[in-house]
């Protein structure tokens, strides 16, 4: 039997729900967190005020704009892992380099990619209230998006599915199907 110091460590589960604005990242992340009892964070809340103002105006963010936001997202993940707390993060992670930065040094981190019809995304953004990202920024996000390559192993979920079915599909893909909700 291996001693505790030499026993293989299973990495703390981390799941990043990614996609463009309006895909339902926050909704799915919250639903998964409720089902699993995991910590969760909406990446929008990690943006610096200057980014929020740019997005409010419909201006696309640059890589330089996103750098402090991605650093905050990595720090949030690292803090949860230091606590050995499984977690979920809603984060657009539009470029492969952003996803690589989130994954670097964080074994076992998985991505769930919410994807779907542009018209559905536009309608959702037009109908949503109380959020800084509106339909005027969708074109920039879709231009920036680099869909995950097969080797990234992202779990692909259609935004047209009801949230409950999205949760089921993610749980199945993660090998957590049938896991009871926490008390």
Structure write-up:
- It is a single chain.
- The chain has helices at residues 25-36, 49-56, 63-82, 96-103, 118-127, 138-144, 163-174, and strands at 14-18, 39-42, 87-90, 110-115, 155-158.
- The protein has 183 residues and is of the alpha/beta class.
- It has one domain (14-174): P-loop containing nucleotide triphosphate hydrolases (Rossmann fold, 3-Layer(aba) Sandwich), CATH 3.40.50.300.
- Strands 2-3-1-4-5 form a five-stranded parallel β-sheet, with helices on both faces.
- Helix 1 (25-36) crosses helix 7 (163-174).
- The chain starts with 13 loop residues before the first strand and ends in a 9-residue tail after the last helix.
- The mean pLDDT is 86.
SS-based structural class?
A: alpha/beta
Radius of gyration: 17 Å
H/E element order: EHEHHEHEHHEH
- Please count the helical segments: 7
Mean pLDDT: 86
CATH architecture classification? 3-Layer(aba) Sandwich
The total of beta strands comes to 5
Roughly what percent helix? 40-55%
Shape: globular
Q: Approximately what portion of the residues adopt beta-strand conformation?
A: 5-15%
Family: Belongs to the gluconokinase GntK/GntV family.
Pathway: Carbohydrate acid metabolism
Pfam family, one: AAA_33
Enzyme class: transferase
Question: What are the SSEs and their pairings?
Answer:
Blueprint: E1 14-18, H1 25-36, E2 39-42, H2 49-56, H3 63-82, E3 87-90, H4 96-103, E4 110-115, H5 118-127, H6 138-144, E5 155-158, H7 163-174
Parallel strand pairs: 1-3, 1-4, 2-3, 4-5
Helix pairs in contact: 1-7
InterPro entries: P-loop_NTPase (IPR027417), Therm_gnt_kin (IPR006001)
Organism: Phenylobacterium ferrooxidans
EC number: 2.7.1.12
């Amino acid at each position: 039997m291996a001693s505790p110091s030499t026993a293989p460590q299973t990495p703390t589960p981390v799941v990043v729900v990614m996609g463009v604005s309006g895909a339902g990242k926050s909704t799915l992340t919250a639903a998964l967190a409720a089902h699993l009892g995991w910590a969760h964070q909406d990446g929008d809340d990690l943006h610096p005020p200057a980014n929020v103002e740019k997005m409010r105006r419909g201006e696309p963010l640059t890589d330089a704009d996103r750098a402090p936001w991605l650093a905050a997202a990595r720090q949030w993940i690292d803090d949860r892992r230091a606590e050995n707390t499984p977690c979920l993060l809603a984060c657009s992670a539009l470029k492969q380099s952003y996803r690589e930065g989130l994954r670097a040094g964080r074994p076992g981190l998985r991505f769930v990619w919410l994807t779907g019809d542009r018209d559905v995304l536009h309608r959702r953004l037009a109908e949503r209230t109380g959020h800084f990202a509106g339909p005027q920024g969708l074109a920039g996000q879709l231009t920036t998006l680099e869909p995950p390559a097969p080797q990234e192993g992202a779990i692909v979920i259609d935004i047209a599915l009801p949230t409950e079915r999205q949760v089921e599909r993610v749980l199945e893909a993660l090998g957590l199907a049938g896991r009871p909700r926490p008390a």
